[in-house]
Amino acid sequence: MRSANRLAVLMSTALVLAWMGSYPGSTVPRLGAQEKPKPTSEDIARLIQQLGAGSSAEREQASKALEAIGTAALPALKEAAEKSTDPEVKRRASELVRGIEERLAAERSRSPKLVSVAYDNTSVANVLDDLSKKTGVPFHWNVPESQREEIRKKLVTLRIDQKPLWEVVDAVITACGLRQGLPDSDEIGAKGPRQAFVLEAKREPMPPVGYSGVARWRLLDWGRAEEKPGVKSDHIGARMEICLEPERFVLRGEPVLRQIRVLDKDGNQLATKGTVERFSWPSAQAPAIPKLPIQIQGVPGQVVNATVVLPNQPVEKRWRGFILVRLQDLGELQPTHLEGLFEVKVLSRESVAIDKPLEAERRTYGQGELQFRLIDAFIAAQNQAGLEVKVEMEQPLAPRAGQLAIAPGAPNQVVVVGGSANPTLDIELYDDKGNLCPVLSKHSSIQVRNNVGARVHEILFRVPNAGAKPARLVVSGMRSAVLELPFRLAVNAPR
After folding, report:
1. Exposed end of the chain (fewer CB within 10 Å): N or C?
2. Which of 257, 431, 293 minimizes the C-alpha distance to 355?
């Protein structure tokens, strides 16, 4: 029987290894134009069983095959990570779930938000208000008072369907007869970049702009720096502005320059090297201390009322920054384009959707900072106003640290001094007609048991539409990520 089981597992592995030809880093060759076989639920179940095989080679083979299958294997892997009694299967399944979900999140992160606008003789003031709501980009005016009212009343007719966010922003600003201004000395200096576009009514052409998925690049300055007044440096400075989609990303950490190339008009690469001389993100500041009532249950039956202090939580609006790159002098060469690749650390807004939450499995969903456990979801009341649905979930405060260190603070306070406190989740319920259900009440508390903390959310929703049913629970929050951001910008001969 043991030999038969092993043979079945190996046959399943051989079938599924075809997927590994499309997985980055795989050494398994593609099968030409042959269509890849689709794994069955039985194939996936056998591979998960093989995660606990006696041979390390078989375990690794199963892990690689499941990783290559990817999304199709996620439900079974999540179940194994939650319920398997084999420690090795449980561990490997958890690692695979985390890896596959991170890969999917990275793919989503590289895809820009698509935006549509439609204006028919709409005033510039209303156009910019609408654009700000759709994109999250605030606009500040730097227009003389004598011109501002006339420009605000100017009528715009424009229609754009499903185009990347930053391309829409630039197209609409141009249609309004405006342009984004250059940063002033305060922005370049100590205050850092404003988290807004400053609009001007100038006719001068815009500095070179490039788009790469969720990012917009702008070349602010390009030329030889002065070592001292009147004396040019042997190096070239390229100051660039980077903008990420404001409602999806928060800049954090130092950008890493992975590639830099200077090209001539024929596309030939000119010999040069580049380094990041400095970068400027807005400062991260701790917000006001939240007065959040908590219950500490260190000893059964003992309850203490307190508030929690979460230190060093970052400001959530950091989507625009500057990067200064220093390049070797190009001599008499005539460049036309600057291109390269940055790695940038961000917080990325992600969402986890649970269909039919009243029937969904009560288990852990999501990963990292977006990890939570669905405790319960049920109909709490039914009346003429509609259904009242209560959702209860638990969010670990420090999933990476494993334990949360708690230290006594001021009277009636507890300070979280270890691990990382997760940001608050946004929790939404939609009915089966796609309507957002209003929130009647929301309560959050922090419970600490045996020095391990969790934030518990209790939300009461109303499903007001007659005959409608709760259909989808969407939980959103921020998680750490690294974006690979290519850029390509037009340049002239350095001054």
Report:
1. N
2. 431
pLDDT class of 426 with cuts at 50, 70, 90: confident
SS3 content of the chain, % helix, strand, coil (to 5): 25, 40, 35
Say how far apart CA 141 and CA 177 lie, in whole Å.
13
What is the assigned CATH class of domain 112-206? alpha beta
* Total-model pTM: 0.68
Count H helices and E strands in the chain, helices first: 9, 25
Over 80: is that where the pLDDT of 234 sits? no
Tens digits of per-residue pLDDT, 340-392? Answer: 999 998 888 888 899 999 999 998 888 767 888 999 999 999 988 889 999 99
Helix axes 41-50, 56-69, angle to 10 degrees: 140
Tokens of 297: 């249950």
| Domain boundaries of the chain, sorted by first residue | 2-110, 112-206, 348-479
Question: Token pair 């069983």 is at which residue?
Answer: 49
Averaged pLDDT for residues 254-260: 90
d(CA 359, CA 454): 24
Query: Rounded mean pLDDT of 302-309?
Result: 43
How does DSSP assign 338-349, residue by residue?
A: EEEEEEEEEEEE
**Which DSSP helix (H) or strand (E) runs through 310?**
none
What's the gap between Cα 370 and its chain centre?
A: 11
**Single-letter code of the amino acid located at 154:** K
Averaged pLDDT, 274-296: 61
Which residue is it, tokens 């090297």?
273
Place of tokens 């209560």: 390
Contact indicator for 279, 322 with CB cutoff of 8 Å:
yes
